[in-house]
Amino acid sequence: MTKRNRLLAAVLGVLVAGASNAQPPPPTPTEPIPFASLSALERSQLAEFKDVWDTLPPPRQDRLRRGAERWASMTPEQRAQAAERFRRWQSLPPEKREEIRQRFEHFRSLPPEQQRSIRESFRQFRSLPPDERERLRKQYEGMSPDERRAFLRGAGEQRRAMMKDRWLESVPENERAASSAMFDAFAPEDRRAFMRTLRDAQTPAERDAIRRELLALAPDARTQRLRQIAPPPRFPPPPPRE
C-alpha cells in the first residue's frame, strides 16, 4: 500500500469520501451553552433558534455555535464553497447521510491517540493537489464492498505496525527484540487486545509492568493472561456487508 493510499484509507475509514473540506469534530460538549453567552454576531446568525435553544442538546448547540463562528470568519468565496457543500450534502440519500453521521460518531469515540493520528493523516491528505484528492476519492468510491474492506484492512495493519513501533521505542533497548517477538507471536485478535491493554493503563510504569508480566510467561499462559486482563473492544467487529 502506497503512502498516498494509506492516507486515503486512514481518512476515509472515518470521514466521508465526498466531503473534501470536512474536519474531524472536536470533543463533544456535555454542558449546555447559554444563548446569552454567544457573541452578538452568533446570536444574530442563530436568532431563529433562540426560542428553542434551551431545549437543544449541548452537542447540537455546540455544532450550531461553531457553524456560526466559521461562517462569520469566511470570505465570500469560502461562503459560496460552503453553500455548495451543503447543497451536495442535502442531495445525498438519507442512508448515505446517516452513514456519514455514524462515521463522525465513531471518530468521537476513538482514544485521543487515534484521533490525533487520523487528524494528522487528514492534514496530509488535504495537502495533496485537489485533482489528486479527487482521483483517490473516486478510486475508493469505485471499489466493490470486498475491495473496500481489503483496502481498509491493509490500512489498519499499517496503522497497527506504526503503533507497535512507537510502543517499542518506550521499551529498554536490550528487551526490544524479545518484546517484539512476543507481540508478533500473538494472534491478530490478541495483538489488538494487547494494544488495548496498554492504552488502558494509566501510567508508563503500569504499561511496562504489563509487558514484563506477559514476557515472563510461557506462550500459552501469556495468551491466557492477556485475555484475562484486556479490556473489551469499544466496538464489536462489524457484520459482513453485501
From TrEMBL:
Region ranges (Disordered): 200-242
Compositional bias ranges of the Pro residues kind: 230-242
Keyword Glycoprotein found: no
Ranges annotated as biased composition (Basic and acidic residues): 200-214
Signal peptide residues on this chain, from the entry's feature table: 1-22
Keywords: Signal
UniProt xrefs under InterPro entries: DUF3106 (IPR021455)
Protein name, entry field: DUF3106 domain-containing protein
Organism listed in the record: Tahibacter soli
